[in-house]
Amino acid sequence: MIETELKFRIPAGRLAAVRRAVATSTARAVPLAAVYLDTADERLAGARVALRLRREGATWVQTLKAEGASDMQRLEHNVALGDWPVAPAHDIARHDGTEAGERLRQVMGDAAASTLGARYATDIQRTQRVLRSGGARIELALDQGWISAGAQRLAVCELEFELLSGPPQALLDLAGRWVDRFGLILDMRSKSERGHLLAADRWASAPAKAKPPPLRKHDSPAQALAAMLGSALRPLLRQVSLLADADLTERVADQPEHLHQLRVGLRGLRSVLAVFGGQEPAAELAPALAALFRQTGGQRDQDVLAATLWPALRAAGAPLVEWPTRANGEPDGPADSAVADRAALGALLATPAVQRLWLALLAAAQAPPAEDGAAPGGALRPVLRLSLDKLLRQLRRDAARFEQLDDAKRHRLRRRAKRLRYALESSAALWPDKALARLLKRLRQAQEVLGEFNDCGVALALYRELAANEPRAWFAVGWLSAHRQALLPPCADAMARLAKQPAAWGRR
Predict the structure, then answer these.
(1) SS (H, E, C) 266-335
(2) What is the pTM of this model?
(3) pLDDT digit string, tens, across residues 76-88
(4) Residue ranges of the domains in the chain?
(5) Cβ of 484: how many Cβ atoms within 10 Å?
(6) CATH code of the domain occupying 2-202
């Protein structure tokens, strides 16, 4: 079975309104008490597989879930076990013969089923109703309760939209209306993931990177675009779920890598759309993504300064390193912005406009049917080559004359190098491995040196602005000017190598 659903956190001030909207005369309340199983070395959690025994009213059900083909889908297999006074024994053989069961056997490997034990539990009061919308039957489930692991407990307050029948777009449309109405916040973290983290005494999973989708040469361009968008979107939405969680603001503040991976995910989506997404409606998403990328840039600049340039300035004896503060303790530097702290960033990501953007991207990542434009005779690669050839020509032209470019064109060169790298990584399944690896190596080298050069330029502009009112900032201006000049030769060298690197995709 494939489960198609989306889950949203409910802002505290809107819970009563959501409850009234769900608990209509046709709704029913069901108590759910579950125990989740895993091995001592967390094999299931590491593979994003969840195995549970759950009492649903008076009936016990053993359920196995695993990641599906998209953010909206999961493999699911349920086995009803009847009425028991206590939790019955688990048996992984109950799922044999299913795709989810095969995934479980692979994950377990040589570990015996007896090594599975209770890791955490949930106690949920569910209010659910089924409604019809856009030609679909959709179940709404309001879950309130707790996840517990030992003496630790974590509150649950969420609303799930599950597609029972009909088109996935109907679920997305309905969810969008409820986002506008109640301020719901998309959360890709399952109860099993949150329970696993609670049991392991961790507050967040490590940031994940996008994986290239398994493109096939006979896919249509529209199918390939949807697959690439879906691949880039999956890890991005996991970062968004974390950064938009107001309860984790203080912890996230000390973890700049999560914001960095958010921006990497946004860049990946923008690159796929810029290189391959000239068609409507996907192209309409590019301006909204660009605006969000700009809005999250101020905090990222602060993180880069704190991680690299501030330590170097301290070592050089700069009289002023970090921004001075106002009387109220807030920063008084030129890097202030609408998202100059993690709380403001989380609030931005939780706005209905941004939530609507995620839903639109999820819609764009839904693969169209094969009959709606299949590429005959393996025509996908020639179509994608056209876009890649154009971008590589522009990149080579500017790379060959790097030393003559002004700062604006150098910055454009850096953006193009990133764009080509992400586009190639997204379409990697279509190109020869060795040639692709060589070109990606050159692009990563170029991106690294150009990134350092750009970060130094951003810092230099900020300190020059600060120096207008704070003379102590002039030391940093001088040091950064000299450092940036010293970075020019390695940049020019990397650009010269990149300008001569052959394409990874051949001609025919």
Answers:
(1) HHHHHHHHHHHCCCCCHHHHHHHHHHHHHHCHHHHHHHHHHHHHHHHHHHCCCCCCCCCECCCCCECCCC
(2) 0.90
(3) 999 999 998 888 9
(4) 2-202, 297-338+379-499
(5) 19
(6) 2.40.320.10
